[in-house]
Design brief:
alpha/beta, binds 2-acetamido-2-deoxy-beta-D-glucopyranose, Rossmann fold, 311 residues, binds nicotinamide-adenine-dinucleotide
Length: 311
């Protein structure tokens, strides 16, 4: 059986996927429309792999040179797509572009190749209805940075062959990610639905002057987030009473009445945008964003090591 993966688009996310697939020995072929991008992707990936190895953070079963040897660049789409088990599309978030890129892949792909998109926002039905192999489409939505945050949401279109979604899930498990399989496409998938529910209430609490930006973020980073890194919201409830049924007996009324107090949904516009931005820029000035991202990635690395050691 072929052990080849095609990556289409060699930016931030394409590079992460390439490293994850190469980690378990897939032959990875990266295509990009910009020749310069492919070159810089290969240089960047080699550096990243070496530095991960040096710091004891390399994932996968092979050493960094072996992993890097699994990754090739090409400026011909066909070389990335031909005989691939799976094509992971990582082009910019633009619907017309995704439709065009998938049509190009569809024209040359084998009928058995899985079509996997990294899109964070578009339902798979929106960019696959015109494909002859549309039964092969799935979204595999990673969370940034995918090398340290293993979750992948797998989302089928209404016409996706269930075997394709299942095989995608198995591949994600094989490369050490944590897949969850949605039964159908829903706007925002699940990660962003949960995230937006939280952002919704955050906006309203700031508008109401209950907490400022710094303190509301602390509620997550030094409060709820501490346990959410290990237990989801439902298991949390199960442990916070004598099981879930007891939790509902005790707290259902409270949850209902507090939730009824939520303010209506607001659109993120108007003076509060500037107000929140000002407070955030006091915490992290805009010329320090990259430094802070690096710190975040380091923190996530350490957290993922801790999680591994607890398993
Ligand atoms: N960055 C994130 O945090 C994140 C998280 C999850 C999912 N995603 C999704 O991943 C996808 C890629 O995002 P990114 O951040 O890596 O973008 P990026 O801008 O870093 O990279 C996109 C790459 O695609 C290339 N490209 C453009 N047109 C192309 C074409 N026709 N054929 C081949 N390559 C082409 C560009 O040259 C560039 O190298 C998007 O759909 C995005 O929504 C991003
Ligand atoms: C990686 O592993 C290969 C095969 O075992 C070996 O030949 C090579 O020297 C190793 N490279 C490094 C940098 O450890
Ligand atoms: C935001 O809160 C309001 C009020 O509860 C609710 O109607 C809306 O659906 C919420 N939106 C999200 C995205 O959770």
């Amino acid at each position: 059986m072929s052990r080849k993966i095609g990556i289409v688009g060699s930016g931030l996310i394409g590079r992460s996927w390439a490293m994850l697939f190469a980690g378990v020995g897939y032959q990875v072929v990266i295509y990009d429309i910009e020749a310069k991008q492919i070159e810089s992707a290969l240089v960047d990936i080699e550096q990243q792999l070496k530095s991960l190895e040096k710091n004891g953070l390399l994932r996968g079963k092979l050493n960094s040179s072996q992993q890097f040897a699994c990754i090739k660049g090409t400026n011909k789409l066909e070389e990335a797509v031909r005989d691939a088990v799976l094509v992971q599309e990582c082009v910019p978030e633009n619907l017309e572009l995704k439709r065009k890129v998938w049509k190009g892949v569809d024209d040359i792909a084998e009928p058995s190749t899985i079509f996997s998109s990294s899109t964070s926002t578009f339902l798979p039905s929106l960019f696959s209805d015109h494909l002859k192999n549309k039964k092969n489409i799935v979204v595999s939505h990673p969370v940034n940075p995918p090398y340290y945050v293993p979750l992948v949401e797998i989302i089928p279109a209404p016409w996706t062959d269930p075997a394709v979604a299942k095989k995608t899930r198995a591949i994600m498990e094989e490369i050490g990610q944590t897949p969850v399989s949605l039964s159908k496409e829903v706007p925002g998938f699940v990660v962003n639905r949960l995230q937006y529910a939280l952002l919704n209430e955050t906006w309203n609490l700031v508008a109401d002057g209950v907490l400022d930006v710094k303190d509301i973020d602390k509620v997550m980073s030094d409060g709820l987030g501490m346990r959410y890194a290990f237990l989801g919201p439902l298991e949390t409830t199960h442990l916070n009473a004598e099981g879930f049924v007891d939790y509902c007996d005790k707290y259902a009324n409270t949850i209902y009445s507090v939730s009824k107090d939520f303010k209506p949904l607001q659109k993120w516009e108007g003076p509060q945008v500037g107000e929140i931005a000002k407070q955030l820029e006091n915490m992290v000035p805009k010329d320090k964003l990259q430094e802070r991202r690096n710190w975040r990635d380091l923190a996530l690395t350490k957290l993922s090591q801790l999680k591994k050691s607890l398993q």
